[in-house]
Amino acid sequence: MAEQVLIQFRADKALKQEVTEIYERLGMDLPTAFRMFMARSKMVKGLPFDAKLPEQTITRTEAKNAFYELRKQASDVPKMSLDDINAEIMAVRSERKR
Questions:
Q1: Of 1, 10, 29, 63, which sits most exposed with the smallest number of CB within 10 A?
Q2: pTM, to two decimals
Q3: Could you tell me the CA-to-CA distances from 26 to 13, 62, 81, 86, 88 in Å, in that order?
């Protein structure tokens, strides 16, 4: 067995608890998850997930405005009953079968 070393670092207490619960639900403890992270990092010779900046960013205000605009557009959609929705679905399915 390879020589073992102790790795220590600081983390937010609430974050650590949330992550610990996630890994416990997956049947492992936090140290095992970190060892898996390190092993995968070695395999891919980097981070085992994409780590890149988004193509474009928007401000909180822009996001909020976009949300309200979509909400406004959705309010213009005519009301449909469940029967109307099911009839529309059936019509599309019938059209696809042709």
A1: 1
A2: 0.50
A3: 20, 38, 41, 39, 41
